[in-house]
Amino acid sequence: MNHAKMIVDKDFKISQIDKRVYGSFIEHLGRAVYTGIYEPGHPTADKNGFRQDVLNLVKELQVPIVRYPGGNFVSGYQWEDGVGPREKRPARLELAWRTLETNQFGLNEFADWCKLANTDYMMAVNLGTRGIPEALALLEYCNHPSGTAWSDLRVKHGYQAPHNIRTWCLGNEMDGPWQIGHKTATEYGRLAAETAKAMKMIDPTIELVSCGSSNSKMPTFPDWESETLSHTYDYVDFISMHQYYGNRDNDSANFLACSLEMDAFIKTVISTCDYIKAKKRSNKTLNLSFDEWNVWFHSNADSDDQMANRPWTVAPPILEDNYNFEDALVVGCLLITLLKHADRVKMACLAQLVNVIAPIMTDAGGKAWKQTIFYPYLHASVYGRGVSLQPILESPKYDCKSFTDVPYIESAVTYNEEAGEVTIFAVNRSLTDGISLSCDLRSFSDVKLIEHITLENDDLKAVNSSACEKVAPSHSNATKVDDGKLETMLNKASWNVIRLSVK
Ligand code: AHR
Known about the structure:
Blueprint: E1 3-7, E2 13-16, E3 23-25, H1 52-61, E4 65-67, E5 92-94, E6 99-101, H2 107-117, E7 120-125, H3 132-143, H4 149-156, E8 167-170, H5 185-202, E9 207-210, H6 223-232, E10 238-245, H7 252-256, H8 259-279, E11 287-295, H9 304-309, H10 325-340, E12 345-351, E13 360-362, E14 368-370, H11 374-383, E15 387-389, E16 392-394, E17 397-398, E18 406-407, E19 409-416, E20 421-428, E21 435-440, E22 448-456, E23 474-475, E24 480-482, E25 485-490, E26 494-501
Parallel strand pairs: 1-21, 3-4, 3-12, 4-7, 7-8, 8-9, 9-10, 10-11, 11-12
Antiparallel strand pairs: 1-16, 2-15, 5-6, 13-14, 15-19, 17-18, 19-20, 20-26, 21-25, 22-23, 22-26, 24-25
This protein binds alpha-L-arabinofuranose (AHR).
The site of alpha-L-arabinofuranose (AHR) has 10 residues, from loops.
C-alpha cells in the first residue's frame, strides 16, 4: 500500500515550541571560529574580522541560540586568555583537539558576533580542569553590571553593559573518558550542584544545564543521569543530551530510521528525569537540552595515534563532513523527532554551525556555501514556529537491520496562529516508491496552499560544494487542497515542507 493518511487538528497540541530547539553550536575546534566566523582580511570581513558572507547565511537560518565555546574544548577552557587587548593574549596548547589556540577570538568577540547574528549566547563553564571559583569569576565578568573586580575588568575591556548571558552549561560530556578532567557521576553531580548553587547566588535569572551522557551507547547511560540528577535536580533547569548518527554500513534504509533511536533516547531521559522528580517529591519538571545532534561519520575525529602525531597548528581542517542528500533526509527526520517532543525538548543545538560538522562551509579566503543539511534546518527554523501539533498518521511500514515497523512517512506539524499558517514537515523514507498522502485538516477553515517545498535527488550520495549546489530545494505542484482536505504525493526519498494558510 503506497498511501498514507493523516488527521491534523489544532486541539491535538503537544506544546508551544521553544524557538531554542533550532539552536546551533560553535566550538574552538578546527575551522569553526578561525576562517569560519572570524577571518580578518577576508574580502567580506567587517572591522571586527567577522565574515559577512557567513553571518548572512546564519541570519538566513534564523538561529535563535548558539552554544559556545565547546564542546570538549570547554574542559580546558581558560576564558581569561581570550579577553582584553589582543596583543597581550597568550597562545596556548589546546589539548582536546591538539591545536594551537591563539585566543584572538574570545567571549567578548562572540558576544558582539551574537548581536550581529541576532542570536542568543549559550555559555559553558569549565568543570574539567577548573571548578567553582573560575565559574563564578566568569559569570561575574559576563553578567554583573559593575563595581567588582571581574565586572570592572569587562568594563575596562570596552564592554560597559553586561552581556547578560541567560543560559549556561555546567561543563561538557563529563562522563566521557576522553574528557580532560573526566569525572564519575558522583564527582560530577556534587561539583555541578555546588557550582550551580553558587552561580545562582550571583545571578538568579540564569538557566543551567546539567551534563547528561555523551550518547546513549555509553556504558554508564542512564545511571549517569540518575546519579548526577540526584545531586543537581533542585539547582538546574535542563539536562543535556548528545548524539551523532552515521551510515557506516552504507545501509540507507537503516540509516534513515535512526531517528527512532533518537526518539527512544529522549523517552529514556524523560523517564529518568521523572524518576528523580518522584524520588525527590519535587514539583519541578526538568526539561531537555539536546545540545549536540547531527550526522557525523564522513570525517571521524582523529584516532589517538593520529592525534598524537598531528603537529600543533592553528585551526586545522578537522571534522569537516561533506554531507550528502541522504544525510539531509536524516537531519529532516531528526528535526521532526525533536518537534514531536516539543513538550520536553526545549533547547537543541545542531552541532555544529560552520565548517566543523556543519550546514555552512567556507573556503579560507574564498566563498561560504550551503551543505545539503542546510535546507531541512532552514525550513524547520523558519517555518516550524508556534505550536507543535500531534498528527494522527497511518503510514505503511518497513523493517530494517536495527528497527522494525519503521513508518515510511515521518511527519511533524506546526501551527503558527499569529501568522495563520500550518506547516506539514514530512520525509518519505522509501527509497523506491512515492507515497500519496491524504490529510484531513478538519479544525481549520479556509485552508489554502502557500507552497510545497521539496528536497529530492536521484542520487542519495549527491553532495554540494563551493563550485556546485547539486542538492537544493525545489517546488512540487502535487498538492491540492479542497474543503479542508489535502491530497499530495510525497516522492521517494524526499523532504517535504507543505505550507498552508489557515483560519
Ligand atoms: O561536536 C564535536 C564534539 O563532539 C564536541 O566537542 C563534543 O562535546 C562531542 O563529543
